[in-house]
Write a structure and sequence with these properties.
globular; single chain; seven-stranded parallel beta sheet; 13 strands
């Protein structure tokens, strides 16, 4: 009875409470978790820290809107700063949000809690008029070489006769993998353990002409550095997939797929676009060989997704369930570090049960060492993208392992990342224009009589073809980015 009420009204307070009590009495407390978290979001008083912790658990399970409901209630209480910060981080992945909501949420947090930006100007002693421009990159994640593929693809190809590269890293140099091919003229600054004021002072002393944030809201704790404006030009690239909402940022770098011209109104930064995809990449670390197409051996078609569980929203599971029902005999493989938790596993089972998908139609795998993690693609014929928060690293890793990714063109930057990557990889045929087309295309591919021939040939040659495609042309991308940097400096000097 409670579930029937919640099907009609997902936020019905009495039904949520009753269902939680019933599940607890049956010893099925894990199943009660998502409903309990939603019930917490229906109260009249501002949430306490326990409820905020529950909201974050909602987020990690892909319940973005349920988490946002709790955080929004908290913005009127003593935990307002933490609530606004959390909202600014997670809102781009909300199925119910749009570009305007993202802009408002991030601008609210930045205006209330970040330092007031200082005026931008070129200071005496700047190297901007010399033979080299000093480019600074700030990152908390340089030690993760699989994630940093696009970053190293750019930095390794920089023209050191024209650019001096400074890396400001939250990991020491000895933790940086082989993806970084260090040039003798590069300057590495270990900022781990330093407060933001100290980092800003370090950047000022290095007389950086143009400072690039590679973190975005994945490390919001470092965003105050940029509000202090330690360099005359502040740029967001790589891990920015929406506006920062921070007035200190002068530019965001994207492309025409992720940021169409008509959406520039939802950004507080000037938008600059590179030709093709804004995230080219090179794979400079060991990965598994491409395996034979699984369905050619098992005669069973296997979909898969190796994205983090927080990207797997209820809407995404609903679409995947439609696909599984439309392609009888097919199965779905999911793998995520979050699936090490029995609570998360049971939650995923509960999601599929809501759509009457039996457990034998999908396989759930937990975390693993990255090389072994990538071997999961040996079981997958076609990868399914998440939405509205697409894969970035996940998409590039899938296609490098010979597995095409099916995606569709969404309504915001974060919902078009895969479309950008796939088109630059000459895999535009796997980019649909709508969710319905995404579902229909997946079913059609799974049921096609020549699926093994078509996907098998593609899988066999995909890696070599990617190497010749724009998505892996890091040299051309570096030249494009360098031209952009020069134009930014010329504009600042006017």
């Amino acid at each position: 009875m409670f579930r029937e009420v919640l099907f009609a009204d997902p936020w019905h307070a009495e039904a949520l409470t009753g269902l939680c009590q019933a599940l607890e009495s049956l010893g099925r407390s894990d199943e009660a978790v998502p409903f309990l978290d939603r019930a917490l979001g229906t109260g009249s008083e501002p949430p306490d820290q326990t409820e905020l912790d529950a909201a974050w658990q909602c987020f990690t399970l892909g319940q973005i809107d349920e988490a946002l409901a709790i955080y929004k209630r908290a913005t009127t209480g003593a935990l307002a700063e933490a609530a606004h910060a959390a909202i600014s981080v997670i809102i781009p992945g909300s199925p119910r949000a749009d570009n305007l909501a993202i802009l408002k949420a991030r601008r609210t947090w930045a205006d209330r809690y970040l330092p007031v930006p200082r005026p931008a100007c070129f200071r005496p002693g700047s190297q901007s008029s010399g033979p080299q421009l000093r480019i600074g990159y700030v990152s908390s994640f340089l030690q993760y070489e699989n994630w940093m593929k696009p970053v190293w693809g750019l930095i390794n190809q920089h023209d050191r006769s024209s650019f001096q590269i400074h890396l400001f890293s939250d990991a020491p140099l000895e933790d940086i993998g082989d993806g970084f091919r260090r040039h003798p003229d590069d300057c590495f600054h270990d900022i781990s353990g330093l407060e933001n004021d100290a980092v800003a002072e370090m950047i000022e002393q290095a007389e950086i002409d143009l400072l690039v944030d590679l973190n975005g809201y994945s490390r919001k704790e470092r965003l105050p550095i940029f509000a202090l404006r330690p360099a005359p030009i502040i740029v967001g690239w790589f891990n920015l997939y929406a506006t920062t909402g921070i007035s200190a940022f002068n530019y965001l770098i994207g492309d025409y797929v992720v940021i169409p011209t008509e959406e520039e109104q939802f950004y507080c930064e000037h938008i600059v676009r590179v030709p093709g995809c804004y995230m080219t990449f090179e794979v400079a670390y060991p990965v598994p060989d491409v395996a034979v197409l699984p369905c050619s051996v098992t005669n069973q078609f296997t979909f898969g997704c190796l994205a983090p569980l927080y990207k797997v929203t209820g809407e995404t599971v609903a679409a995947w369930s439609r696909i599984l029902r439309g392609a009888p005999g097919s199965v779905l493989v999911l793998r995520s570090s979050a699936l090490a938790s029995p609570t998360a596993v049971e939650f995923v089972h509960a999601l599929f049960r809501q759509h009457e998908i039996p457990g034998e139609r999908y396989r759930l795998y937990g975390p693993g060492e990255h090389f072994e993690f990538l071997k999961t693609y040996n079981e997958i014929d076609l990868a399914l993208d998440t939405f509205p928060y697409n894969g970035g690293t996940t998409t590039s890793e899938a296609i490098w392992q010979g597995v095409p990714v099916l995606a569709f063109h969404g309504d915001r930057w974060v919902a078009r990342i895969s479309a950008s990557i796939l088109r630059a990889a000459n895999l535009g045929r796997f980019v649909c224009q709508s969710l319905d087309e995404y579902v229909a295309t997946a079913i059609s591919l799974a049921k096609s009589q020549d699926r093994c021939e078509v996907l098998g040939e593609l899988r066999l040659h995909m890696r070599s073809r990617l190497g010749q495609s724009p998505v892996c042309d890091t040299v051309a991308f570096a030249r494009d980015m360098e031209q952009i940097y020069r134009r930014m400096v010329r504009t600042a000097l006017r």
